Amino acid sequence: MRPRALVTGASRGIGAAIAEALAAAGHPVLINYRSGHAAAEAVAEKIRSAGGQATLCPFDVADAAASAAAMAEILADAAPLGIVVNNAGVARDNPLPALEPDDWHLVLRTTLDGFYNVTRPAVMPMVRRKWGRIVNMSSVSALIGNRGQVAYAAAKAGILGATKSLALELARRGITVNAVAPGLIETDMIKDVPLEHVMPRIPAQRLGQPHEVAALVAFLCSDAAGYITGQTIGINGGMA
């Protein structure tokens, strides 16, 4: 059996597409979500109907205690956890003077604390097996900035530094650590974006699709990508 894959924030959008792609590649998938049980169950049913394996794994990655309990249960299973995709994230867009402290902390906790809370307990079991794939979802905003996204860009840029450093720590252990930085992908997250203003900034002149991001992540999680580590790979239609 292929190693299990944990995808955080996998009840919709890019996370759901990643879960489906990894299941199609033969990995039993753990679908993490904080809320939205019905949406997560729909993703799981879609995977199962296609012949894959999916298990719901509800917990808030920003909550250290909840994450520790959930990860302990996941890692107690005899089936190895070989893949972690840190996809969970939230945006609270506002110009900095209007950005409330609670929103700033929520964005950073979800992305950066979430990365720490989920990845840290998963690392040593991967080290013992001498195989693992960690993919951290960043954003084009971390690379080029975006008005109103100081918190989001800061959190996603922090992920890039964490990716580089962790890749150096684990490279000799058969574990790769990479970041994927999507641009404007057609999901609910961009439903309020004024596309008439941003489309001219996209050389490809279209939005990306979740399945395109998922295909990249699935490749990075494959054996074929074993010599790719410490990289940030953009998928943004030429924006950056």
List keywords for this structure.
240 residues, alpha/beta, seven-stranded parallel β-sheet
Q: Any low-confidence stretches, pLDDT <50, length ≥5?
A: none
Number of helices: 8
Shape: globular
Query: Using DSSP, what is the number of strands?
Result: 7
Q: Please estimate the helix content.
A: 40-55%
Structural class: alpha/beta
> Nearest-angstrom radius of gyration?
17 Å
Strand content: 15-25%
- Taking the alpha carbons of the first and last residues, their distance comes to 38 Å
Q: What summary fits the major beta sheet?
A: 7 strands, parallel
Mean pLDDT: 96
Sheet with the most strands: spatial strand order: 3-2-1-4-5-6-7
Order of helices and strands: EHEHEHEHEHHEHHE
Note down, in words, how this protein is organized:
By secondary structure, the chain is of the alpha/beta class. The protein is built from eight helices and seven strands. It has helices at 13-24, 37-49, 64-76, 101-129, 140-144, 150-170, 195-198, 210-220, and strands at residues 4-7, 29-33, 54-58, 81-86, 132-137, 175-182, 232-235. The chain has a seven-stranded parallel sheet with strand order 3-2-1-4-5-6-7, sandwiched between helices. Helix 1 (13-24) links the parallel strand 1 (4-7) and strand 2 (29-33). Helix 1 runs parallel beside helix 2 and helix 3 (64-76) runs parallel beside helix 4. It is globular, with a radius of gyration of 17 Å. The N and C termini lie far apart (38 Å).
